[in-house]
Amino acid sequence: MTIVTGSMAFLSGRLVCHIGEWTAIVVGLTAGAGGALLISLAPTGGVATLIVSSLPVGVTAVAMPAMTAVAMSHAPRDRIGLASGVFNASRPTGGALGVAVLGALLTGDSGYVSLHAAFFATAGAYVGGIALALAGRRRTCRITRVRKNAEPATARPTDAALLTVAGDDHLCPVGARRRRSPGRRG
Predict the structure, then answer these.
(1) What are 163's strand-pairing partners?
(2) Rounded to whole angstroms, how far apart are CA atoms 48 and 74?
(3) Which candidate, 23, 25, 83, 161, has a CA 20 to 30 Å from the CA of 16?
């Protein structure tokens, strides 16, 4: 799983530029849900089965840079620092809460350590994240349609490091752009 996570983290920037932030979030969370479900349904005692089942969980690393891009690109200009702080504080808070809940589920009532309940709950959390990502995508698409009919907005300070490609929800680092929009130079 570590090799898959590292590979996905390394490739995620380019992948997000090609498929978009929301798609990357959904793909990463779906792979995580599938991996967690495989682990929860796997027979007890097989290390090889556990290793193979955990590989899709590593693909979740694709979603992290996309989540960061979405959170920062949709923050109001005067609250970008606040949005960054809240976003960065939510990760360790969620991690601590997840460790506490999953630790309680690992032992359960029986006193024996079992991955089944903990990873079934993890799969459920991933499904909740997928639902939120799909709702966010629909909301962003609706806002984008309204903005395209409005007057052009002025550039934000964060726009210097990001470049819009093939739509408002498709931000890529400058230089990573592969496709060209009609009528744009650069």
Answers:
(1) 172
(2) 42
(3) 83
